[in-house]
Amino acid sequence: MFNSKISPSQIDLERYTHIMICYKCYKYEDHATYQCTSTTPRCSEYASHQHTHKQCNSPTKKCLNHNQQHRTLAATCPCRKQVIHQKNENQKFTRRRKNSIYLDIAKTAIQQMNQPTSTLTLSSNTHIKLAAPVIEAHIASLAKTESYGSILLKSLKRNFNRDTSFPDRDSQKIFKLFINPSPEPAPLATPKTNTGTTSTHHDMELELS
Length: 209
Fold this sequence. Notes:
Low-confidence stretches: 188-209
Number of helices: 4
Radius of gyration: 42 Å
Largest sheet: 2 strands, antiparallel
Oligomer: single chain
Strand content: under 5%
Structural class: mainly alpha
Mean pLDDT: 77
Distance between the termini: 94 Å
Strand order of the largest sheet: 1-2
């Protein structure tokens, strides 16, 4: 008996579902006890409207909700089971709806990622218009105490009427990109041999042009 094994598939996880109960009129999922406006006493043991369960001396039990032979708050009460079942179904529907919304969002995001991105083509005039504020901000920042970024923001606002933001960057590096966007590679060193001697790999000197 003690050596027997139980498969996980044979175990049902008991889920607790909280339901709201008024302990004054004993209605389910309607209102809390402190919100109850009823002044009539009710007995949850025998369904009497003359006393509460504290004064009840009846040996038999009776439900207030559908008059069957059990306590009102009994776990086996069909009315209580129906309320719990309905609440569980509502929660399942809510979870399915949320999952469906998340799935739709994920599908939309994937579709947008797979869409080909459009290439922005700028005319020569637009290039000049964009380069001019950068160069102006660079030169102005050398002569003023104001930062390059703040000068550039004011220039863009003045010329394009656009509010934007830039991090503080080194204007020297940005300016060099405009002046020399693709620097030429450094020349390679060429070997030179000493005159009048037999040239070996030890005698070779490097001359930088």
